[in-house]
Amino acid sequence: MTTTRVALVTGAAAGIGAACSIRLAKEGIAVGVLDLDEGRCAGTVREIEADGGKAVALGADVSDRVQVRAAVARLRDTFGPITILVNNAGVTDFTPFEDITEELLSFVYKVNVFGPIIVTQEILSDMKAEHWGRVVNISSSSAQTGSSKMAAYSSSKGAVISLTRTLAQELGPHGITVNTIPPGSITGTIMADENISEASKERLAATLPVRRVGRPEDIANACAFLCSEASSYVTAQVIGVNGGRVVT
Ligand SMILES: NC(=O)C1=CN([C@@H]2O[C@H](COP(=O)(O)OP(=O)(O)OC[C@H]3O[C@@H](n4cnc5c(N)ncnc54)[C@H](O)[C@@H]3O)[C@@H](O)[C@H]2O)C=CC1
Ligand SMILES: CC(=O)C(C)=O
Questions:
Q1: Which of 9, 24, 176, 202 has the fewest CB atoms nearer than 10 Å to its CB?
Q2: Phi, psi of 6 (to 5 degrees)
Q3: At CA 231, angle to CA 32 and CA 175, rounded to 5?
Q4: Atom number of ligand 2 nearest to Cα 186
Q5: Ligand 1: distance of its center to the CA of 248 in Å?
Q6: Is the C-beta atom of 177 inside 6 A of ligand 1?
């Protein structure tokens, strides 16, 4: 890699976003670790720096363009133009369909759909100027299979898959690849012990090709490839990881 690439990872204080940030930093990429509360990003930044990497903590709500613009400016001032973006920040929701309200829909869609659109728009000029970019959107296997009591969430992630395919066409001519990873169930907040019993995890694992529930590191490895120089001809792909359905 001739220049130090700069990445922005959203929702990076914990879980999949933290794993992606740490993994990208191992490739020599300088990482903007963004989450709602900048203070919560310190742990991810510390782990990256302890490993010899470069990172900066950023606080912003991905659905708020003013906050996103300020965070992007700080990252750009710190490390330079941003040419890698992982739209990972997301919120899940388990609500029976008939109980879904406009307020809930607005909350879920603002984070899961408006967020990736706003953040991508705010860094796009850097990618176009470099004629090189990597965008990875974290969707969900529930967008492909449906998931009972997750209509707001799974439909929002379906929008992320469609957004990915559209942007791949629109941004490809600018040297920018756009892909999505629809994880299956991954240990972390959603799959935390208080949310799912060990017996349920074992039953779930028995249905998965690799016979185990996914880990954030699994997503981070797939993400690192999609953000690499080598992945220049991979775009508009939906790359299932650990239970995610692979569709092209
Ligand atoms: N864990 C799982 O089983 C699966 C997760 N996913 C997706 O992967 C992504 C990450 O999920 P996890 O790491 O499991 O969740 P997580 O809850 O551990 O991490 C999500 C992070 O996003 C941050 N965040 C939430 N709203 C935000 C906003 N408006 N602005 C900035 N940051 C915000 C949260 O503070 C949190 O740190 C999400 O998009 C989720 O929908 C998809 C499939 C399965
Ligand atoms: C939360 C989520 O997307 C799954 C597949 O569990």
A1: 202
A2: -120, 130
A3: 75
A4: 6
A5: 24
A6: no
| Catalytic-role residue among 25, 82, 153, 176 | 153
pLDDT tens sequence across 54-112: 999 999 999 999 999 999 999 999 999 999 999 999 999 999 999 999 999 999 999 99
ipTM confidence? 0.98
The question of whether 233 is a catalytic residue gets the answer: no
Q: Write out the H or E segment, with its range, that includes residue 31.
A: strand 30-35
The residue type found at 66 is V
Residue 238 Cβ inside 6 Å of ligand 1? The answer reads no
Count CB atoms within 10 A of the CB of residue 6: 24
Q: Which amino acid is at 64?
A: D
Neighbours of 172 (CB within 10 A): 13
Instruction: Give tens-digit pLDDT for 178-235.
Output: 999 998 888 876 666 666 778 888 888 888 888 888 889 999 999 999 999 888 777 7
Half-sphere exposure (CA, 13 Å, Cβ side) for 70? 10
The whole-angstrom separation of Cα 98 and Cα 214 is 31
pLDDT higher at 16 or 233: 16
What CATH superfamily is the domain 6-231?
Answer: NAD(P)-binding Rossmann-like Domain (3.40.50.720)
Domain edges within the chain: 6-231
Q: What does the pLDDT read at residue 240?
A: 65
C-beta 32 within 6 A of ligand 1:
no
